[in-house]
## 1
Amino acid sequence: MSEEQISAFQPQSTRQPMSQRSIMSRTGWLVKNHPIGFLGGVIVLFVIFTAIFAPLIATHDPAAQKSKRLLPPSAEHWMGTDELGRDVYSRIIYASRTSLYVGVLSVALAVVLGVTTGVAAGYIGGTFDNIVMRFVDILFAFPALVLAIVITGLLGPSLTNAMIAIGVVFSPRFARVARGSVLSVKNEVYLEAARVIGGKQWHIVRLYVLPNILAPLIVLATLTLSLGILAEAGLSFLGLGTQPPDPAWGLMLSQGRKFMELSPGLAIFPGLAIMVTVLAFNFLGDGLRDALDPRLKL
């Protein structure tokens, strides 16, 4: 049975790409009805722009050490210098690369692990579903940051191991959401029709199940990005993530807290960068939820 024959049973909304007018109308609705979500999107784009063009935006070499240590903000050093004479502003700019790198790749790992597990459990069902979801419940029983610390401690402190730990810790979220979404569409008429005419299971899952469960997964991925950035900052703060001399907001915060009385900016500026970025992703996630959920839109 060809894919073209099966596609006749697919809902129209999943087969036709969104038109430019529809995209503009959704964007206008988001700006009008959820300005916080639009603001979050603008800040996220700014952070991405900063990470991509960090060599052009930074004013100094982030690793260059000078004799002028613990200087206050000035025209030469916009956010002062740290205990080794390095420019704080340039290090914060370059640290955005680390946060986005870990956040995006760790969430991508969580999506692959969680969605694959959740879709398989929900679609196959039965004993397999029970075994898989009980294992997911065990992972949920541990606090996310504590489990990430344990995994990173076992693997060894490094940026790559922190990324793996964060991805494993957040994968149960996607597994549970994917399973619930699959159960909600598993018995739809178009899926039954595809099975009756002999559609292969993999084609049914790829063509009809996954497109109809993407909306909640996109929202969850956006919200999890903020948690991934926050988890990376926490691991780096504890010395289990990014290692010196590479710049990272959590690592800068950990090093700067020792000099709070002499130079408060060493801890304040990295903390503000973490707070603004995490809030921006949360705001964007809320806006996407409202834009993609027709019930909330009504």
Note: The radius of gyration is 23 Å.
## 2
Amino acid sequence: MISFNGREIPETLDEIVSPEHTALIVHEMLNDWLSAGGYFHPVARPASITEMLGPMIALINSARENNVKVIYANYTQFADHRTLSDPDVLKLQEMRSIHGPGLPVVKGTWGNQVIDELRPQKGDIELEKYKVDAFVGTTLDLILRWNHIKTIAIMGVGAFPGILSTVSHAHNLGYYIVSPVDCIKGISQAALVEKAMEFIGKWSIVKQSSELINAWKSTN
């Protein structure tokens, strides 16, 4: 710990990710983004996502075992488009020119549900978000502060733009952020993911998921 103006500031990884003040955010692991038959992958799930599931499952299990709060941040849209801003509508037209008609992750549909391998359990928090930034228009900041959270670990898909914008916002709100690099991917465009990770690394502590698991175990 660092003593500063009467405050005790977490310094080491073990202190920063102490379970009593850490939450794990599972970001947009939804059927429409990831499952065979979903909006983006009608034929098969990408191999890169399959490879990531093992570390993600291990990290979620460790979080639950060590009383780290698990929060699912799920991008959601309404079928009548009322949750889309004017610029979002333009982006939708562009997306449809590539992927065809329809609207992904519509509230109440299979595509808006978390994939089977990572389904929320009793005690987890499910958060609907309508913008890529998980703080905009949601109660995420309130939930974290009410539960005395200082640190968020974030994993999932949407390194760009969702995880990047959420990490940036969290930093500006004063949270520590830990990004398990082996548990963060993009839905598409690998080059954008690589560039996003450069910026995510500026605002967060980039680690392997195994390092978080070991840090949580060390507190027992």
Note: The chain has one domain: 2-76+114-218.
## 3
Amino acid sequence: MRNAFSLEEYFIEIRGAYEDDFVPMIEIASWFHVSRQAVYKILRKHGIDTSKRKLKVECFACGKVFKLPKCQIRASKHHFCCDDCYYAWLKAGNCDGEYKQSRQGQRSGRRIVSEYFKLQPENIVHHKNRNCFDNSVTNLMVFKDQGDHVKYHRDCGDIKPIWDGGSIE
């Protein structure tokens, strides 16, 4: 029963990792070479809530308090209460390239292109200046499929888009 004793000794470290740093139980268990259930039991023994409830966080842009699941808190260091706060933060230039581009720009681009060109599901809308928020018609091109899109980015051969918004004036 040496493992249970060592877990008791390291309880403060376990509690801090679980509650403050949102480290998953399975990862904590690997640190101590025990099962996830052993970590669960020690946390429950000391009255730590291990339910998968949502926790309160503060919006990085506006300061509003809202709830998120732990997995989403772990996934990002910046949390936003709504898309408006997120995009305002991006437009202010605070991201320093550390964010993943949103698919919302791609969806908007598809919606705009569909007014001029009949898109097929496999067609890919490309932003010429690589800014997915710039959905002006002249900034958009359409490729037959993802393969052609990748080849275009890698300059493989003479890949031409099947539609180019730059030709619309």
Note: The chain has three domains: 2-45, 54-91, 104-167.
## 4
Amino acid sequence: MYLMNKLSIDIGGVDLPWLSNQSIANTVILILITLIGRFLLIRMIKGTGETLSDARRRWISIIQNTTILFAALGLIFIWSPQLSTFALSLTAFVIALVVATKEYILCLVGAIYRATSNPFSLGDWIEIQGLRGEVLTEGILTTKLQELGSGSSRFQFTGRILTLPNSLLLTQTVFNEEFRKYALHHKFKVTVESGIDAAQIAETVLPLLQSRDEKSDKLAEKNWQKSRKSSQMTLPSRDPNIAIETNDAGKICFIMTVFCTPQDAAEIEALVTNKILSAVTKVPE
């Protein structure tokens, strides 16, 4: 019986009287009055003549338009309370929907930002919020990375897949390591005790700061030239370099910089580190 007296929609916890018997009845009465009145007035103007004068045609047109306007105003008057309540309920529903799907909306906006600003492309090495990897896919909601390791394995894949929400692109800085994927200025430090001939050791290990083979060296040179042209700026020299300094504890620090491929970086670092430690152990007490 309740459904016969009143049909309602509950949106966002608000009871919405969408359809009621009173409104339906008033609508039906309005339509009947409009149609009957329109029919009688037009029939009266037409009369019994077979042809219509221009004046009568004009009056018929006025009546047709007037009755349509009268019906529209009447419907607005009848349904205005329901429409206003429906508008408020619809607003509450839209707000609740936005709150519930906020993360999805931010991910969509992040995808739009990525497409318009182009901070990276498929295959690039990137770092975002401390997470590094090669871009595998660029989705509407997420971006997938093939994770790169850290420390001595920072140029090697871990085998894990990282799925990052695109909303991170709106709040976090994206570091693009596209150039470092093929060649990079690899910098590392070896710290030893004082009391050694640091200059002689540096001279010994300097020849080791280079690519392991000619093919790798040519690849590094090619990417260095490519990066220099694309950036249109002066890049650091490709020549290996060793800086010697002391830390707060008085120990000697060898800071090496070598331009090489990522595949050679870990090998060169290990080779040079072992060479320095071996040279230090040979120094007499």
Note: The radius of gyration is 40 Å.
